[in-house]
Amino acid sequence: MKSPSEPSKMRRQPQQQRSQERVKRILDAAVEVFDELGFEAATMNAIASRADTAIGSLYQFFPDKLAIFQALEVRHLERVSAAWGKISNLNVIELPFADFIKTMVGIYKEVFEEPTSRLVFIQYFTSKTMFQRIDDSLTQQGIDFQANLLKARNPKLCQEKCNLLAEVCVQAANALIVVALRGSEVHREEIFQQIEELLIAYLLPYDGERSNDKVMIVCPKCDSRNLSKNGFRHGKQRYLCKDCGRQFLDR
């Protein structure tokens, strides 16, 4: 087998639907085997058995397991590209600030609900040498993408500041996502919720005129932003905290 640093390509691309379905089964099976055994311990026979296909069919498309893994790279890159496209198509820069963050985190969370992206993401931060298509330039693309969103939301921010804010957000989120993906499903949900709250707290002061009252006001008792307007008193807006029940006036 080739060393991880050497390129390893598919022998041929599937053209017919039947072949495409077989390759999909192979890749799905490989994700499970790599996840359970690790890349080094995984074998082509184990992948073929899990895919319920003959080992000869496996070798028709892939010369070795490294080529299979690199096909999974492509699958993950396609999901990341689709996520960026979805964020752009939804025009998130027009959303209220909290919804802006929630929407983005939610879309990225959807990416990692697919086992391939979970496997590839964790593996990248474990052993980068086996990757042929993904490198640090993908992280930089994510930073540039985020910086452009911040600049669009607040044109008063200089580009250098947007780049710095985006770098902190992307690098911090990546580190936390690794933790999330290595934990249980419950813990994963908790970490993604914390990523959302972290980004809201960090970026809110830089959101400019798009910040709204509901986001900027927090409960004086529990610091929650989960508020609802609750009438007026002495000419001031009154709020009700949906988390702790505290009622307070807009100061």
Automatic annotation (TrEMBL):
Gene3D superfamilies assigned: Tetracycline Repressor, domain 2
GO MF annotations in UniProt: DNA-binding transcription factor activity; transcription cis-regulatory region binding
Residue ranges flagged as DNA-binding region: 43-62
Span list, region Disordered: 1-21
Domain HTH tetR-type span(s) in chain numbering: 20-80
Keyword line: DNA-binding
Name of the featured protein: TetR family transcriptional regulator
Source species of the chain: Brunnivagina elsteri CCALA 953
Lineage: Bacteria, Bacillati, Cyanobacteriota, Cyanophyceae, Nostocales
